[in-house]
Write the structure tokens for this entry.
Amino acid sequence: MQFFPLFMQLMVKIDKIDREILRLLTGDGRLPNTALAERVGLSPSACLRRVQELERAGVIQGYRAVLNPRATGIGFVAYVTVGLSDHSKASQEGFERSIGLYDEVRECHNITGAVEYLLRVETADLEAFKLFHTDRLGTLAQVHQMTTHVVMGSPKNMRA
């Protein structure tokens, strides 16, 4: 029964102006309302109302700072696919709880296909990744298989 009210909240009609607001805020979440209003052709008050409605409806879920990985000590990024030995709900929940404790795991996605999870892992360097891979991820009881894909470059990265 709780799904329906949440579903109704997210059923917001997004028009051309809202899409432009979202595009601009995705590029610069700190864009002042006056500049945003000017770029979308609205008065500042009308623009602010639209942004607030998009926030209230859950279309805009938050604002984040985009960090320079090197400046924060991140020199190694990898995606790791993880297959579980047991496909039960309890096994998935246990894995997800454990992964939630690891700062190195920046993203965890439950996916379809031959494996259950795709992780984005960020560490200082290859040595730190190896320790994480062996001493943390590799020791979880639920983990059956792991495949690592090392990021060599990111020519397009829209993640905040």
In short: Residues 70-150 form a domain with the Alpha-Beta Plaits fold (CATH 3.30.70.920). The two ends are 33 Å apart (CA to CA). The chain has two domains: 3-56, 70-150. Residues 1-5 have pLDDT under 50 and may be disordered.
